[in-house]
Amino acid sequence: MSHSTSPSSRRGPLTIALIGTRGVPARYGGFETCVEEVGRRLADRGHHVTVYCRNADADRPARYLGMDLVHLPALHQRTLETLSHTGLSVAHAVTHRPDAAVVFNCANAPFLPLLRAARVPFATHVDGLEWRRAKWGPTGQRYYKRAERMAVRWSDALIADAQGIADYYRETYAAPTDLIAYGAPVVDREAHRLPELDLRADGYHLVVARFEPENHVLEIVRGYSASKAELPLVVVGSAPYAQEYTDRIHQAADARVRFLGGVWDQELLDQLYAGARTYLHGHSVGGTNPSLLRAVGAGAATSAFDVGFNHEVLGRSGRFFRSSEDVAELVEDAERHPEEVAERGRLALEQARRYDWDDVTDRYEDLCRRLATSRATRRRGRRAEGTA
Question: Which superfamily, per CATH, for 7-183+356-387?
């Protein structure tokens, strides 16, 4: 996705609401990263951007990088946290009537009819195939399938961040989507922070992931522990709701595995990506993943779980695994052939140029203008009906 200057940026400002995430500053996942990167650029272009944030932090700024922040509470329970916060956010948004809204996560679909009733035009970012995640039992999986159908029915537009997601909605629901992937930040290949963790550049393998079964952290740790690799495996991440799975991961590790927990210092995390011999990416259901894009932007040679989303991002730079045995073979091979690893890193940087946040913002801006225009068209249509 090469950058282009959108003609829409030369027209008047819009009021845009970004709903359904934890908010900014981005500290959690793909949705939050997208909101921060796109929202700040939209604000720089003169649009009035409002981001709805969960108020977990005591320090709650009213503005951030040009965006207005609205802090609202949420129930601290896994199954209700997102919905409770989004319900309050939608209630606030319908009273302020933005020109366009983007709702992230189709799990929030029960509130979409409220936006529709208030004549707020909106797109739903449907993300990955949430019903495939192991953390949701049968009830949760049925809920997500129903939420998908509601998103298709009620949304003015759907956003997919990967071709595989777009294909799924077209094949399952005959529903078109706007394909807008995330951006891949190009990361400076610095290493001066690594000694803080007793690490050196090109001296370790890396995993960055929440500890959830569909991210295959357990399989990666098992495979590495069964390998003859000499470089340590550094694992960044945790799981707030999955202690049993976390325990299994720790039990599978040998003395070469180092668990760092969550790393929220972005400079340090970027240097971990850039300094890794290989980055091991086990995500399998979430569409285009920001951790993978950050690794690509850092020029990390990446071995990823063998699904279409990951092939789409990595192209020729990637190696792929399906089992712990595959992981063992990949890390051993990377240590035997460092010259091949270096070439894969160069190819990864070429891939990163396809994922540009300015281009992503162009696409969101154009979509929001279409949404705002659709509302104006509906209003004119109602006026015409009234005078007929």
Answer: Glycogen Phosphorylase B; (3.40.50.2000)
